[in-house]
Batch of 2 targets.
Target 1
Amino acid sequence: MFIVIEGVDGSGKGTQIRLLEKALNEMGKKVFITCEPTSGEYGVKIRKILSGEEKSDSCELAALFLADRIYHCQNESSGIKRMLDLGYTVLCDRYYYSSFAYQGLGTSLEWVLGMNLDCPAVLKPDLTVFLDLPAAECDRRIEEGRSSREIFEKLETIKAIRGKYLEVFERIPDHNVKIIDASGSPEMVSKRIIEAVKESIPL
Ligand code: TYD
């Protein structure tokens, strides 16, 4: 089974992926955790662009995310397709919904949707869990770890990205997306996720 975890910054994806791995292991599943951008050639270039070390056009960045995703699905050492064939449950931290939300905001959503969904090398997830939290709460969680930041600017960005995710989920109703309330303790959120996983997938 191929499960994607999505959410804006501060939504708690990292913690929740580890808790879900533990729960799946306890159910006797072999779990492979992976993320985007990958550590492959395109992923390394993407990280340089995201950090500001390299400049890029926003359409070029969207295309690089797609190239990274094709590599992520298809590479023969530990690509998603190979790991699924080996019987692993694959948990992926961010996938094409991140492109829809982030690059959909900066370029053309139609174009980003089309090139990802129509690409034969890009696998369709069996389940996507979206960790949903009001933007202000994400902002507060991010802020906890930092001393100074342009709060207003950041908050506006988080709001816009969350809005784009929700818009996209309505536009692709044939995708199995569960929107999970990510407020409360990590254990409470994890329970909600495990329930959604059990509902969606014959474990
Ligand atoms: P990362 O440091 O991994 O952040 P996080 O812990 O929030 O996942 O950085 C990934 C960044 O890349 C994040 O800001 C979202 C962005 N991104 C896109 O813009 N498009 C994409 O298709 C993907 C996969 C990620």
Note: The chain has nine helices and five strands.
Target 2
Amino acid sequence: MIIVMKPEALQEEKEEVINKIKELGYKPHVIHGTTRDVIGAVGDERGKFILQSLECLSGVEKVVPILKPYKLASKEVKKEPTMIKITDSVSIGGRKIVVIAGPCAIENEDQIIKVALAVKEAGADILRGGAYKPRTSPYTFQGLKEEGLKLLAKAREISGLPVVTEVLNPETAELVAEYSDILQIGTRNSQNYELLKKVGQLKKPVLLKRGMSMTIQELLMSAEYILSEGNQSVILCERGIRTFETKTRNTLDLSAIPVLKEETHLPVIVDPSHGTGYAKYVPPMSFAAIAAGADGIMIEVHPDPEKALSDGQQSLIPSKFSEMMEKLKAFIIAVDRDK
Ligand code: PEP
Ligand code: MN
């Protein structure tokens, strides 16, 4: 249910509503809107109509049911887009298109610092790099783990770019959160509900990738796991799904962007590197993602893709990334967004 407060509701009146929601056995979530606050009450669907009684409290304008299964992620609860602040100068979900770039995996100090400076120079806003790598084969490079986090922190300091890196399990989530500005949940973990709950309890923005066989509704339900734990900062990422097509690594579902924009207030970004699997297809699909309404893109960049320990085939060299960034500007202007 959504408890819509009157625009002039007092703080005490909001607190009274919050306490009553708790008394009735539901979990309150305050969502600050531009003109008024709304309070989402989530919990057992079966008895929710008892919340209707809150309508008689002063400060409450109306109580309405949320019809979608994803409650806090839905536009029913919040119509305005959510803007997620990463640092004082970087936010995702506002007018500015955000570009995240960096290697698939952090391999050594020289590599991550070289890429960090190169992508910054080309205009990227956030540096990516995996320290804990979820690999299909247990015999391939698994990431530098904590050592990788330390190198990422160094690259962050030298470049001034905020960083995003993947969290593989609840046990290491807090450690990763100490080093990273954004926690990435990868495609293979996007329905790992214990992990989703864990990052929902941490105070760091979460970049949630779409599972490779996940419907859009399931993606929103996974986001709901994070939101319902109290973490309102979730960025959704379309990264391609499994289809019968073999010419690309995955099928990048760009139609997910307008659909998600219709359904949720959360920001949506696109990862055309994993979405296509080939460096040469990354620029056209990046342009298409922006044209379709994405709030940003995430691109793999490596100084020497042939020697990369993971995903070299889909990684752009810095000069190609820089070229792509130049061409991207026209698309950003075309959709009336900021660079
Ligand atoms: C990655 O970003 O390097 C990654 C492993 O992505 P995904 O989870 O989308 O495969
Ligand atoms: Mn990768």
Note: Residues 318-334 form the longest helix (17 residues).
